[in-house]
Structures are given as C-alpha cells and as structure tokens.
Protein 1
Amino acid sequence: MNMNVVITERMHRSGIDFLKENDANVELLYETNRSLEDAIKDADGVVVRVAKINENLMRIGKEHKLKVIAKHGIGVDNIDVEAAKKLGIRVVNVPYSCINAVAEFALGAILLLAKDYVRFDSEVRKGNWNLRYHKSNVEIRGKTIGIIGYGNIGRTVAKFANSLGAYVFAYDRFVEVHEDYVKQVGLETLLKGSDFISIHVPLTKETYHLIGRRELEIVREGVYIVNTSRGGIVDESALCEAIERGRVSGALLDTTEQEPVTLDNPILKCRNLILTAHSAGNSDVAVVGDSLDSCRQVLQVLKGEEPPFIVA
Ligand SMILES: NC(=O)c1ccc[n+]([C@@H]2O[C@H](COP(=O)([O-])OP(=O)(O)OC[C@H]3O[C@@H](n4cnc5c(N)ncnc54)[C@H](O)[C@@H]3O)[C@@H](O)[C@H]2O)c1
C-alpha cells in the first residue's frame, strides 16, 4: 500500500522514523518550498502542530486522497473539526503525552512570577544587590491558586498547588471536582478570590476572551495570571492595561493570539509580562510521545484500524 504522509512542522524524529519503518513516504513540508495547499493533494495523512487546517484545505485533500489529520498534541483549535466531520476526514490527537509537561510549566510560571527571579537577576547584574532590602517575594503557601479548566492539565496543576500548601479553586463548566483539597467555584468567585490564576481550557467560541476587560476589573488586586492554554482566551490588550494599572501584578503567556509573536506586536511593550513560545508542552519526554503517537495513529487509520484518540 502506497501511503504519503505530510509533516507540516518540525517534530521529534521518533514518529518520522516510525512512519518510514512502516513503508510510508514522508514529506517534511518545512524542508521544501511547497505550500500545504499543494502538498495536501498528494497526502493520505497529515500531521500538524500549530499549522491551520481549514475547510478549504480539507476539501482540496479530500478531492484527492486525504483520510486523516493528526494533531501533534492536545488542542485541535487549529483544525476545523466540524468540516472534517462533514467531509469524513478522520481527526486524531494525543491527549496524554504532555499533561505533566504543561502542568510543570504552569507551576514553574507561578513560582517565577511569585519569586521574581528575572528581575532579581537583572538587578544583581546592574549591581543592585540591595534590592533584597526593598523587595520581598511572594510565598505560595496559604495563597489561593485558581484553576480555570479542571481537565487533565488543570487537575495536575491542582495537585502541585496543594503540595505547596496553597488553597485551590477550580472553575469548570462541564466536570465535577472530586478532590477534597479543591473547591469548585463559579468564575466570578475564582476571579475575586485567587492570588494566582492558571488557565487550562481549550480555545472555543465560548472561551474566546473568557478573561477579558470585565473579568480583569474584578480580579483580586495584585493577582498573577498564567496562560499555558491558548492565545485568544485572554484579551491581551486588556491584560496589558490591567498590568499597567497594577491591578494584575504580572503574567506569563505561553500562548498568544498571534503566533509566532512578531516584533511589532504591542504586547512586547508590556512590562511584567513574560512570554514563552508555545513551549509548555515541549518537554524532552512529551515531544517523543506526541511525535510517535500522532504518526502511529495516522498509520492505524490508513490501515483501516481504530486509533485510540479520535476527535472526528
Ligand atoms: N502550551 C502548550 O504547549 C499546550 C500543550 C498542550 C495543551 N495545551 C492546551 O491546554 C488545554 C487543556 O488541556 P487538557 O489536556 O487539560 O484538556 P482537557 O480536555 O482534559 O481539559 C479541559 C477542561 O476545560 C473544560 N472546559 C471546556 N470549555 C470550558 C468552558 N467554556 N468553561 C469552563 N471550562 C471549560 C473542560 O470541561 C475540561 O475539563 C488544551 O485544550 C490546549 O489548548 C497547551
């Protein structure tokens, strides 16, 4: 069976090797000058990271031989899942590989903001060792960490937060919290009562700007916000204004509305905002699992087998 799989973006070689060992032809799109619009005409399967796969691309693929799109990771907001259902193209993802990677990253961000390592480093380098007499750092124990989205990652962050002696609030519209160390609350209570907010909902129509101007008006004064989920869930200009006013003490955004962030993006001017490159899920362990399990499922679909993580 002749199988062509297009890999849109760089990823760990484990999945690519697996495809080749199983006699698939692999096209590494990022090493060619070809557009995805063109390459999808030859593809039985496509593996994507953040590249957008819209209905138009799917239709082009479907007119030829496209059968499956695999997401290297969890969030499928870059794939038009409804269009895939309509067209009968299978969509799969890898929901378990990077849970710990993202949860650890979020915890690291909470600590980074609380302890202000970056500022201390830059002041010490300027000779301002005496900052220690003027600036204290924030202790996590006894503070409240509010988790928005109590799924696989949110639950893991809650466990970490509990182990540090924090109170934990969780807001989730669809799941019930069972852990006795977590208090399930409404969004407003979470916003008003949390010293740290960590966001772990998918990007959907409902979660777009879930944390917007109105929400940032009612957050607890001096809150820290961490978003390792998706750009678009936090209104970035409202966040920068809230940081400017001191309502929000600081934030870390791993994901932003514009990715990659270009040098003219106004968020780069925002102080007390730390930006990372959608890298929370890219741990040494997770990149192997994401690569292997996305490619493995492509082959399963192409061989007529049932893959474990079907989205559409
Ligand atoms: N930064 C990264 O590298 C990276 C890596 C992996 C995942 N992510 C993001 O993290 C998100 C969460 O991952 P997960 O594995 O925990 O997903 P999950 O599906 O296990 O959990 C998401 C939770 O959000 C809840 N939810 C959905 N819509 C909601 C709404 N409108 N209001 C309140 N709660 C809502 C769901 O009920 C669910 O419990 C993913 O969707 C993805 O966007 C980011």
Protein 2
Amino acid sequence: MTTTTRYILKKLSPCPDCDGIGVLAHPKWRRYHDWHDAYRESHHNCSPSDDATNTWWSENGYYLNSRPDLPPQEIACYTCSGTGKLEQDIDLRSALTALGINITYSNLQP
Ligand SMILES: [Zn+2]
C-alpha cells in the first residue's frame, strides 16, 4: 500500500450572507423596516406615527408597554455562526490556482 502526503489548506472567506460582519438583522426587525419603508413610500416620505408603529408591533406579537421585550435588532448569522468567516479545506493545487499560480508538477495531484 502506497501512501502519499497531501497538503490541505484552510480557506477563510468573508461570509456572503452577513458580508463578513457576523450578524444579521432579526427577521422581525427586517419585516418592521420593510413595513416602515413601504409606509414612507406610500405616505409622501412621512414616517409612521407612534400609534401606527405600536399597532404594527402589537399585530406582530409585541406591545408598546413591553418594549424591552422587543427582539434584539441583530442576531448571530446562521451561516457563519457569528464569526463572519467561512472556513473550507482546499488542496494545495486549488489554493495556488486561486492565487493565479499555475502548477504543472505531476506530483501535485488534486
Ligand atoms: Zn455570516
């Protein structure tokens, strides 16, 4: 049995889902901002009143009197678990090719 040594590198890339910052807007806050933006667009760029805002939150399970219970505005990214990076094992040939280095040695097997 012949064994060969393979070199594996770690490729760290910025997470595409959070652009490398590790956090995402909470889904409820994303919907709130979408509603807020749509409201302004349909009301000549005026922001919703406090009453309209409170109504939106109460219709979505939150109440003004319990504002501290609102969800956090940001949550850890699901894709990268909040690290902002994606880690991937790649072989040496792939790494060199990605760096623009063309290797033709036959002992570098993929
Ligand atoms: Zn991420």
Protein 3
Amino acid sequence: MKHLWRLFVISFLVVLFLANDAVSQNQGNNNRTNTHEEKLKIIDVHTHGFVSSDWKKAGVVGVVAMPGVDDVIDPYKEKYDKDTRVITCLGLEYSNKNEIKLTELRSRLATKKYGCIKIFLGYIELYAYDEKYKEVYQLAAKYDLPVVFHTGDTQSSSAKLKYADPLTIDEVAVDHPGVAFVIAHCGNPWYQTAAEVAYKNKNVFLECSALLTGDVNQPNPKIIGQTNEEREEQVKLLMVEPIKWVFNYVEDYRKVMFGSDFGEDIISNIDSYVQAYKKAIPPKHHKAVFSENAVCVYNFKKFDIFKEVDCSDFWKKFMPWRLKKS
Ligand SMILES: [Zn+2]
C-alpha cells in the first residue's frame, strides 16, 4: 500500500511536469509566430486596386498597381488607399492585336512616375522577342524599370496562348541583360518552364499570382457542386505544390515574389491567398518572398518603411547595373 501511494505521487508529479512543459512550449511557439507576423510587411506585386479592410488584415502594406487588359494605361491608382505604398506599372498599349503604340509609352515614361512596364503576352499577338518590342526594352533599360509579362492562361478566349508561353522570355532575357524581367502568374500552367527561365537567367524573377481565383478558402462557385474538401485538394494541387516546386527548382530564395492579382473578380479574399502561398514557402524565407525581394526588384526603398532593406547583395548578384547607378 505504501509503495502504491508513492507511485501515485510520483506519477502525479510527472504528469504535472509534462503538462507544464507543453504549455510553455506552446506559448513559445505562439510568441514566435506573433513576432514573425508582426515583422512581415507584405508587398503584393500584382494588384488591381480596391484596397479593402481584408487586405490590411492580411498585412499587405505595399503593392504594385497593375493596369488591366482593357485599360492598359490607367492602373487604378486613385482607387488605392492613401497609406498604401503604391508602385505603378505602365501598361503597353496595343491595337489590332499585333500593333503596339509607343508614343504614349515614351512620353509617360519621361514623367518618371512609373515603376515598371507591363506587357500583355497572348492578348498582344507578338512573341516577347519580336523586333517591335525592342524599343520597349531599351526604354526599360534607360529608366531602369522591370518589365512584367503576362504569361500563361488568358482570361479571354480570343487571346492566343502560344504568345504567352514563358519559354519565349528566355531569348529576351539573354538579349537584354541590363533589364529585369518578371514572369507573372509563374507561367500558369507552364510553371516548370517559367522556373527554368528564371533559374537560368539572372535577370528573370517570378510571381505566382492568380494560380486559382476567387476565395481559396471556399468552394469556387464557378465549379458546380465543388465541396470544401475538393477545394482544399485543388488549392494543394494547383497552388501550394506548384509554388513549392518552383521555389525549390530555382534554388534561390530571392527569385520568387508574392503576387495575388487581387481585384477584378480574380482574387476575392486576399488573406486566403496569402495563407496558401505561405504554405509553399519555408517560414525562414517569408520575409524575402513576401517583402524584401519585391523591395529590391521594384523601387520600394523610396518609401520610409522599406528604406532599411539592404538590396546590395541582391543587386550585385542579379541587377548589377543598379549598383553602378546608386
Ligand atoms: Zn492581373
């Protein structure tokens, strides 16, 4: 009896000790995630205006404002919240599907208000390496502006996919080593090609926006009868796994940026897209992928909250022309 009593007391103490340990470990984890979340100032490099409170809740404090296909010049800047840091991308106008308009581009770039140039491959029926684009790349070099390409699936069925294949960007990247190029949508669904082009060319970067549309936490109403479980499987297969694959393939955590394509009925819940994107990237690289890589590719250092970001190694490795200038 005496022994039994002793055994009982010892077991009780052991249980108490273990429980206490679990609680403190848990608190440690929570503290770690909280401070990590606080520090993460998310930049969304692919947006179409309409900042909502959801957006702020998700921690997005800086954006690249993209023009739309039908409204290539105006990137909805006036629709952004006053305290969001906005870099504006100028869309390249086109007519007759294979004629681009350069006059407006030249004069607008001279105002130096823009932070990048967007080219709608697929909607414009010209390959990225077409001679007609040569002056665009020369202007991009002159003003040191990244060129962002729409790649992969097009929203419009009248656009032509062969022009939107990310493989065509390889030739441009080789021929214009003094320009940074961004492959939007990670070439979706040709993300392996997009990753290879970024892996092989120093001056090419990726953003995996709009791999899925709608609220990625909810069944997609456009897919009749989709259940929650089916949606989860879809998010895993078509978003998390591809981004994870791309991130691992390029072998450099500085090559991938966060982009959503928020607005225009494409991405309706920004936080759901952020959370799914995070699952694809190891936490130790969140700061680079969700913030600092974008600071260095686009000119976010001009904003106070990003001015401390050190881009010297980044520029030395990928954009050496920028070091020479500053
Ligand atoms: Zn877009």
Protein 4
Amino acid sequence: MTARADPLTDAYVALGLSREFAAAIASGQDADAIIETWKADWRGDLTGKHPAIKAVLNGNATPEQAKSLIEAADEHPDLVLLVAEGTKTLQWVAAVLKGFRSHHPAVTAIIGGADPGVAANFLDLKVAKSTLDIIRKGGAPIAPIDSIINDIDKNIRRAMSDFKSMNAEQKKKILKASRIRVKGSQQVKIERYGRFLDLISQVCKNSEDPALSISGPHVNEQKCPQICNNCKGTSFYRGYYKWECNGCSSSDFSQPKVQRFSDITKSENFDSITSALSIPASYSRKEKLAELRRMAKKFKLPLMISQRNGKISRTTKYNRGSSKPAPKSDFRKS
Ligand SMILES: [Zn+2]
C-alpha cells in the first residue's frame, strides 16, 4: 500500500487513522475490516507496516486471520509477508506453519520451491499428507477479478438448481416476477429461465471486465417468428399447427438473439440486452437499470454500471481484459 498524497486519504487521516490505514480505505478496501483492525486490542502498537496488518489493509486477510498471523510473523516474517502481498494464500501459509513452524531452513527452502515432502524427510518431521498436499499445490491466489467471476457462475448455478427443484406453482411465480413467459412444459420453463440467468450473468461479468462480451438468445420467444433460418425471409403465415415461412414454407425459425457486443455503455447495446431480458422498451434507461439491479441483487451478483441522464457508465475498478475466465460452463444441460 503506497501512501502518497490523496485528498480522500487525507480525509480519513483527519479522522484519526494512520496514513497506511487511511490510504487502504481510500483505495476501496473493506473499510469495516480495516477499522475493526485499527481498534482491536490485539493489534497493540503494530502499524500498517507489520506483515499481518498489511494483509488486512491489502484485502488478503480478515482481522481474525491477521490476529493469528501476528504470532507467526514473529518467527517467520518472510512467510507472513507472502500473504500480505498476495503472493500466497492464507491457507498455504497456514499449512507451511502447521508442518514446519520454527524450522527456518525448511520454511526458506519451501518458499523457494522445495518439495515439502523432501524437507520433512530430511528433518525427520512427521507432516500430515493433507498438509503436504496443500503446500504442493503452490498456494497461488486467484486474482480477485477471477474469484468475482467464479462467484457469479457459482450463484447462477445455484439459482438454476433451486429453480429446477421447485414445483410447478413456484416456478410460475418466479417466472412471472421476472416477466418471463410461463406457458409451456416444465422443460420449456427451465429453458427460458436458463436463458434469463445466462444473460443476466453475462451482463454482470461484462460490468466487471469490459472485455467479456455479451451475446445469446432472448429470454422469451417471440410470439411470431422474425427470420426464417432457411431462406432468411421475414414474412410468415400461421399454418394449421405452426408458423410457416411465406417464401419457402419452412418452420425453422431462430430465437431472436442479442448480437455479440462488449460495450454496454453504448445506448443501443444497453437497450438490446434489457429488451432481451424482457424489460419493457418503454422504460427510461434509469428504470431499465433499476430493473437490472433488482435482478442482479436477487442472485447476489455485482452490477458495476451506473446511469446519469440516460447515459450508462462503468463503475468497475478492473481493467479491461484483467480476468481469465474459465471456459463457459453450460449449466443448462447439467
Ligand atoms: Zn423461408
């Protein structure tokens, strides 16, 4: 945490916090955790320079975890610093401490990449296999943006499995609440809800990392077809059983789709995705965004965009392309 001049930092310093603590809050770290640490008796007179405290200020440990790291830092400051700087996970450091505490050469060797099994063998130490396994995995932390993206996927998968386990009446209620068509079999309902979850999760991911594009079928089917997949005709008639193309009599129509885009701040993109989510086109951008926010909130998803005078802008702190998303999981098929 660098503590260079910044008006917001100065404002927190004026409250009575040290510059390191103030700078951490100003930079957007968890203010509650930081203040809890500031006030904690266990902190004593340790400053933000202490590796365990630094871990909280950098958002790499909770106050509770920092407390446990303070003791360890007396013996192995270099190890605790790895957590503070976000080079290793707390879990990895805890495993090294569990297996090799007080054995300085072993800890140094393991930080340098030595196999913990070899180190244990050499020192005639009995270290549990589960501990060795954790250390061997390397303890590289997941970048925060990636864990946000992973959490979005996790919450969406949970919402889908919750929905599948509901009875028909509950499903209907859920669909209605989000303006999703309720007609059709259970399977059709599940497909619509899947499209809904897919689009809303893409919007949230794109709001975090503008490099993640958005595309896909609309939630609701159109009441009548838009484009013939066979001849690309756009004129149709209602046959006895189904719609048919005026040009070629085909009944192969595609679900209307959101064309791939990544700039949600562009009005036409924002309008196209909200309409795919069946938010009324008559709504103002402000109302549309409020609806999106309501949807995202329901699934505990972050939505990092805001609106002013009808203009959408981003509030994400992440750079474009900073996430490395796992291959897209097709939860609808599971
Ligand atoms: Zn046709």
